Amino acid sequence: MANKSEKRSGAGVLNKLSHVALAVWAILIIYPLIFTFLAAFKNNTEIFIGNPFALPSHWDFESFGRAWTEAKVGTYFLNSLIVVSVSTFGTMLLGAMAAYVLARYEFVGNRFIYFLFIAGLAFPVYLALTPLYIVVQELGLLGTHTGLILVYIAYSLPFTVFFLAAFFKTLPNAVAEAAMIDGASHTKLFFRVMMPMAKPGLISITIFNIIGQWNQYVLPVSLLPGGAEGQEKWLLTQGIANISTAAGYQADWPALFAALSIAIIPMIIVYTIFQRQIQSGLTAGAVK
Amino acid sequence: MRQGKYPFVIGFLIAPLALYGMFVLRPIAAAVQVSMTNWSGLSPNFDFVGLENFQKLLDDDKVWLAARHHVFLLVTLPVITIALALFFAFLLNMGGGTRGGMMTGVWGSKFYRVVFFLPQVLAVVIVGVIFGRVYAPDGSGVLNRFLELFGVDPVPFMAEYGLWSILGVLVWQAVGFYVVLFAAGMSSIPAEIYEAAVMDGASRVTIFFRVTIPLLMETVKVAWVYLGILAMDAFALVMVLSIDEGGPDGATTVLPVQIYKSGIRESDYGYASALGVALAVFTIIFAVLSLRGGKRNAVEH
């Protein structure tokens, strides 16, 4: 052993340096998150004057309670959950339907419709932000979850269609033909045969959409205006941004950090469990 | 086909197309139209003013500041992120040295991969709020307290180095994604190529620059486009992290922030739409240029 490592002492130094570089970056990633969690237990003085590397003087979960009820993080969290579940489901259903038809059926206008969807990838959401606001307002959907859900679905379609159309094209024809000979209808073929076969692709893009929609900020902040009533509809990202910008020195900072922890911890848990799927789901777009 | 193909096709396409047309295509078309009016949103009446809004845009100092900030981010964000990500990905895949002619990853590479990627699943807004405390201008800030150990006086990060600080957060969040992307690319490079390089006595540094990077060029170009698009955004971070939403005095503003302020806040629909058109043109030119550049110099393997 000793002999071997001596022979490669140059490589050994490099090895150690590699570890140092990787460990430093890992600490840079983890520490701000640990700091956030600790700050939830501190008081305003400890957060504003204290040492950011110190532990809190008391350990109680009061700030979490205040964040959940008084700062309405509980409401925001549930709102996000509702909006994202419905919109991701809608995105996947409508996206898969469009992608399937575009990928596997020949008809007049196929190329054109496909191109229309793909073109949506080229435009930043900010281009259409103001007119979108007006459209949603005209439909009477401003400040409603329904409006936001429909908008989320619409903006998630280009990438979903693009990705799934490519996926449906790779599925073998033989199974589809056999099902047709057995007398399956087009609809049945899609739901019973093609969807199950496309499962890996569907999972990747579902994860992609859940994370993208959960983290959305500009759309809710534009389409769910404030006001006493409007604020009840807010989503988590927008609620937390509001607590942080409204917060002065007198504000309840521990509750803000408790709110941040409430937002982060479920993501970390879900991520740790599904990290392999999440990594491949999110990078799937770049690999294409 | 026995049953009608067209009813089925239409049935499957109508809902997605209707939503997409209503909330994406129509607003995009309207943005171009509205950008040539003086619609203030307050009155239902507006006039066609031609390119007046674009003229106003060219005279707007904030727009020029924002454009300069995008150019800054467009250069620094991809360069720094890609360099760090390539470096880390290489260490993770091959930092462990050679064992029996095979390159191996460092110990714990799986753990690092999980940790590095983590910021990717966190909302930008939440990351922005956290970094408000990381960048706090006195000893209670994480970064300043750390610098204090080296005798550095407190740095007013957001007040004086706002754009660099925002760049720091963007890099912090993005690197892990590209580490995973590049690491996957590296592991698909055939082992024989590395074996041959090791046989020839190439060092790891040589292998990194002469073998790995050229073979990863396609992935790097994809990364470049993605990061460039990110550099054209930065909305959420600037809104929650910077002083006065893009300040102080416009020092960190970006076009999306200007669009949001004039469109949603001030109901200056015409002008905000013109800004939107400008941003879209800027983004599309960037994407076309980088994809064009990407066609050449590809190395096949």
Automatic annotation (TrEMBL), chain A:
Pfam families: BPD_transp_1 (PF00528)
Membrane topology, as annotated: Multi-pass membrane protein
Any one biological process term the GO annotation gives: transmembrane transport
SUPFAM superfamilies (alphabetical): MetI-like (SSF161098)
Keyword Membrane: yes
Compartments it resides in: Cell membrane
Keywords: Cell membrane, Membrane, Transmembrane, Transmembrane helix, Transport
Any one GO cellular component localisation term in the record: plasma membrane
Domain ABC transmembrane type-1 positions: 77-274
Highest taxon, organism lineage: Bacteria
Chain ranges passing through the membrane: 20-41, 76-102, 114-136, 148-168, 189-211, 253-274
Signal peptide coordinates: none
Family: Belongs to the binding-protein-dependent transport system permease family.
Name assigned to this protein: Sugar ABC transporter permease
Provenance organism: Catellatospora coxensis
Automatic annotation (TrEMBL), chain B:
Superkingdom classification of source: Bacteria
Gene Ontology cellular component list: plasma membrane
ABC transmembrane type-1 domain segment(s): 67-290
Gene3D superfamilies registered for this protein in UniProt: MetI-like
Spans traversing the lipid bilayer: 71-93, 114-136, 161-184, 223-243, 269-291
Membrane topology, from the record: Multi-pass membrane protein
Compartment annotation: Cell membrane
Alphabetical UniProt keywords: Cell membrane, Membrane, Transmembrane, Transmembrane helix, Transport
Principal location: membrane
GO BP annotations listed: transmembrane transport
Keyword set includes NAD: no
Sequence similarity: Belongs to the binding-protein-dependent transport system permease family.
Protein name: Sugar ABC transporter permease
Taxonomic source organism: Catellatospora coxensis
